[in-house]
Amino acid sequence: MSGQATSLAQRLVARDATLWPAGNVSGNRLGFLDVPHRMAAEAKDLVAWAAGIEQSTVILLGMGGSSLGPAVLEAVQAAHGPSGGRRLVVCDTTDPTTVGALDFSDAFVLVSSKSGTTLEPNVLLAHAWSALPDPARYAVITDPGTPLAALGRERGFHRVFENQPDIGGRYSVLSYFGIVPAALIGYDVAGICERALAADPVEAVELGLAMGEAARAGQDKVTITVPPAFSALGLWVEQLIAESTGKQGTGCIPVPTTEPESGPDRHQVALELHEPLDLGEQFYRLELAIPMAGHVLGIDPFDEPNVAESKANTNTVLGALPLPELDAVPGADVFGWLSETVRPGDYVSLQAYVPFGQDAALEALRRRVRDHLAGAAVTAGYGPRFLHSTGQLHKGGPNSVVAVQLVRRSAQPELPIPGEPYDFGTLIGAQSIGDHQSLLAHGRRVLRVAVDDLGEVS
Hints:
The protein has 16 helices and 13 strands. It is an alpha/beta fold and 458 residues long. Strand 6, helix 10 and strand 7 form a beta-alpha-beta unit.
């Protein structure tokens, strides 16, 4: 394969759009290929800027791929002991309990949104501004000329970072979207870029080709095993693979784990990391690999044709308040329904519209469901996060998904959104309903479950 991989790597680096089907959007999405060079050149200035921020905590408001990279950087650094740098809190949810718990008393706020028009960062910014109307303690990362960039300048924010516009959110971790947060929490950002540029493009292409070929041969569940101290990396890899390949009825289905999982439909990918800076190499390696999986599958790895559906449904629901009542079963009914519903080759997606901070409970539930189903592939994530990333796979990928929506049984706490006629509890409720409608419209099997505790699911 090395000769083929070498040729394909050369074509990728040369930005050859014919690697993917006609009409693909790669023409304005391949900036990730050279952005590590640009960030390495700016590393000294970014570190100096970050050193001038006085606050001890950075709160990042975002949604989708552009916020998951920073979440990984923070979690991995924390797992390796005190860094002496700032703490990063990533808020990419509309859950009122999580949003209401944000502490702005000693925080610098970073608002990340490629388009500058995404609903979630905008309402999160409105909430933050109502608590902390101090422009000196804000910065934004966005594309050039967006409404968010204009707002940042109008209010006199500390800094407006305008990212290269030819980089999609899920490929943006080595751009300003990931490197600015990395600088703020004390990473050696030049070191991250150097590690990225040390990745072997040919080996990365081979990784992607193997993944795509395995999917075509029926091993479409990509078991991504990472060391426990790097478990958060699985979250980023999951959305990169899912949103890039899950379309036109095909795709690679990522299953992040810290322990081996096997099965006849599994393709194994083990990621080797030893220290936080190793993230740089793996970020870039996988950004090079996944477009090659798309090449094998004959799809465009840079578009997201089904992501907008749930957003549109959410807006429709919000335009016809109050929220409609949807049937939901108790947690005790879940395992029985799964036993009757899941077939060989299926995978289960646990979609938890619950407050953040329940990672251990969510992972424990994922493993219980996996074991109950004799080792079937099971993924788990927080809503509405996946509406902007892995949700592409659920609607556009193969119809092998069995979705379990976990929503609150008790009433949501009230947390108003300044300038909007609805509160955060209503918003996350509308998002779950909108995604439910989208899943059903694509003929997906979905069960809505009302719980107050993930331990209720059995």
